Amino acid sequence: MISVITCWKHPAAQTIQERNVHKTIGTEHEYIMIDGSRGIGLAAAYNQGIAQAKGDIIVFVPEDVFFMKMNWGQILEKKFLEDPWLGMVGVAGTQYLFADKYSWTAAGRPFIKGRIVHHLENGDFFAVVFSAENGDFPVVAIDGVFMAVKGTILQSINFDELTFNGPCFHDLDLCMKINRNHRIIVTTDIVVKKRTQSVFDKTWNTFGQLFLNKYADQLPLTTVKSMPDPHHFISSQVVDLKGKAPMETIC
Q1: CATH of the domain at 141
Q2: Secondary structure of residue 186 in the 3-state scheme
Q3: Beta bridge partners of 187
Q4: Which of 37-46, 54-63, 70-79, 80-89 bottoms out in mean pLDDT, i.e. has the lowest?
Q5: Strand runs (DSSP E) across 81-236, as ranges?
């Protein structure tokens, strides 16, 4: 079974996201909504969800994320079943983390992998393409837009809600813990869309520095032999999807 955990600022009896999960997952599951109306950080909210979860696989998604393809739960189950060392699956991430740069996209191409679709409230509909290739890629960290973790791992580790008590870097922190004994991959077999864009503000910078300080003795971290050259940084690409992909949310 898969447990899907999310945190809502304004909880409702049933949300479009919950209907979207039920419609698309394609396997036995439960949907756990944590009440975030009192300003709880995502790390603390997700830890509350873990305490309630019954699934063999636990998926963490923000409240504004929706699935664009069917049977993604079956895809996850197959990946974890076929690889006993697989601990975490994402849809976007990096093969290299710097010791002095806290953005996971800082390495640029070809080290960043995956893609995230954005369908904003103003009607903009586009994909941020970190890599053009399709498939599964070993990485050291994934973006918190979608995180699927083997349930047994979360019996011994959890999110650091004391250090990361806000909206960001809880994801990279968990990746660092999982990296110690398990593999992490990015897959293009699962496609999600997000209704907002990330904000890289003072809060993000503050938590980013906390992340670097916490893991100063473990960074840089890589899955590849080559090292990114900051002087030859190659960014992700933005692809307009209007007229090229269905905009309607499956629910």
Answers
A1: 3.90.550.10
A2: strand
A3: 136
A4: 37-46
A5: 86-90, 92-94, 96-97, 112-119, 125-129, 136-139, 141-142, 147-150, 183-187, 192-194, 221-222
Half-sphere exposure of residue 76, counting CA atoms within 13 Å on the CB side?
A: 34
pLDDT value of residue 222: 97
Provide the β-strand partners of residue 34. 7
> For the chain, what is the domain count?
1
Domain-located, residue 251:
no
Local confidence band at 200 (pLDDT 50, 70, 90 cut-offs) = confident
Asked if residue 198 belongs to a domain, the reply is yes
Beta bridge partners of 239: 127
Taking the C-alpha atoms of residue 3 and residue 181, their distance in angstroms, rounded to an integer, is 22
Q: Where are the alpha helices (DSSP H) in the chain?
A: 16-24, 42-52, 72-82, 170-179, 202-214
| Residue 197, pLDDT score | 83
In a domain, 247, yes or no: no
| Residue 248 counted as domain residue | no
Q: How far apart are the first and last CA of the chain?
A: 21
Which domain range does residue 161 map to?
A: 2-240
Tokens of 237: 């690409």
Q: How far apart are CA 47 and CA 160, in angstroms?
A: 9
> Interior CA angle at 24 toward 21 and 25, to 5°?
75
DSSP 201-220: SHHHHHHHHHHHHHTTTT-S
